Each structure stands twice: as C-alpha cells, then as structure tokens.
Amino acid sequence: MTSDLESALDPNTLRHALAAFSPLSVDVVAETGSTNADLLRLGDADATTRVLLAEQQTAGRGRLARTWVSEPMGSLLVSVSLRLPRRLAELSGLSLAVGVLLAECLNRFGAPVRLKWPNDLWFDGRKLGGILIELLPPADQHSRVVIGFGINVRLREAARDAALQPVADLREAGLTATRTELAAALLAELMQGLRLFAAEGFAPFQPRFAALDALFGQRVQLGGTETGIMVGVDPNGRLLLEQAGLVRAFEAGELSVRRHE
C-alpha cells in the first residue's frame, strides 16, 4: 500500500505553489536519465526558471560522478535551472546555501536534518540526500546554474545494500506530508532563499550553516590526506580545519570522520 509520503507528484499543485516566482515552468516526468542533464540541454535562451521533477532516474548523478540510486516514487528528484545575477567567481558557497535552505525546510516538517560539508543532507548520522550544482557557460551579467537535489523518501533493503555508505530516508523521520507538499515547500524555500544569495552571496548563510553543521568540532579527514578538527566554514563556504593550532581553509575535497585508532 502506498503511503502519503510515497504518493505521485502533482504538477498543478506545484505550479500553483510557485506562481510567485514567474517566469517559471514546472514539469514532472515519470522517468528520465538525469533531471540535471535534461535542463542543461535546454541551455540559456531566456530568463525563464525551469523546474523538473522525476518519479525515477535511471542515470542520476551525484558528486564525483557517483551514481544516485532511485526507485519509482522512492525519492524526491528535483532540478532547478535559473539565472543568478552573479559571475562564476561570485558563486562560492552556493551548494552550502542550498543545503541550508533544504535542511531548514525539512526541520520545520519535523525531520532533524543536518548538513555535511559540502553538499550532503544527513539524518541520524546517515546520508539522507545530496546536492549537485552544474553550470552553463556564464554570460557577462549572469550565470545559468542547474541545482539538482535528491532526497530519499523510502529506501528498500536492496537500495540500502547498493549504497556505498550508511543511508537514511524521510520515512524514518516520521514525516506524514505528501511528496507534493514537501516538494512545493522545498522549492518555495529554495527560490526565496536564492534571492538572498543573488544579492549577498554566501555570507548571510554562514551562521545558518553553522547551526546545522553535523561535523563541527570533530576530527575529520579531507581528501585522504588532510586531517584536523572541523571548526566551521568561512564567508565563502570554504571548510575550516584546525591543524596544529592553525586554521586552514579548503575549497574542495571528500570529507569523512576520522576515527580514533
């Protein structure tokens, strides 16, 4: 039996919920390879913001070219293509800002979601979702970004076994909202919050990220080589590690918890 959390997405309800953010299009497809790839192919011909949701992806992608496993109506699979009036160099911290907006929204639904730098949503110490941001060639006065996010709604044992790390789903958090209600709230939160990012960059999101940081104060390893105590992120979204009494900033890398030996 299908629960409310696993019900089909309603595109008309989503369009109504996002009407304030026009010009905007919203489409829901039963299946596609990758919602991000679909929106990237549409290019940047005009200022329309495009939202694409899929009930299932067959070639979903995550960070570092990893595969995103999904089952029909088992996840929220969403991509948003929009123009931001910022040049490429001014997009630092965008994935963290997106994570803040999604996590804050899910917390209001009752799911105590936290963030793992740079682009993971965590629940109960396990991966609940991820964010993938891709760019079209920038124009003089704006950048067209494609923001993709996937959130596990219901994971069967086979999907858990196929994952390369501990994973969680929204069903475990006790959520009773429909997938359409969740998608509408998440997208409205995202669209509104991106207006702030467009105006001020990541800086106003820095303290909000700190409040949701899953690994603050823990000894972590970055990229297999750098270790230290995570002490937050800077105003550009760079990871801050304390190493031998000094704080260093890092722009990229795979972050993991360093266990005591």
TrEMBL record:
Signal peptide: none
Pfam families to which the protein is assigned, alphabetical: BPL_LplA_LipB
SUPFAM superfamilies per the UniProt record, alphabetical: C-terminal domain of transcriptional repressors, Class II aaRS and biotin synthetases
Organism per entry: Ahniella affigens
Protein name per Swiss-Prot or TrEMBL: Biotin--[acetyl-CoA-carboxylase] ligase
Molecular function in Gene Ontology: biotin--[biotin carboxyl-carrier protein] ligase activity
InterPro entries listed in its UniProt record: aa-tRNA-synth_II/BPL/LPL, Biotin_CoA_COase_ligase, BPL_LPL_catalytic, Transcriptional_repressor_C
Alphabetized PANTHER family for the sequence: BIOTIN PROTEIN LIGASE (PTHR12835), BIOTIN--PROTEIN LIGASE (PTHR12835:SF5)
Keywords: Ligase
Domain BPL/LPL catalytic: 24-198
GO cellular component, one term: cytoplasm
PROSITE patterns: BPL_LPL_CATALYTIC
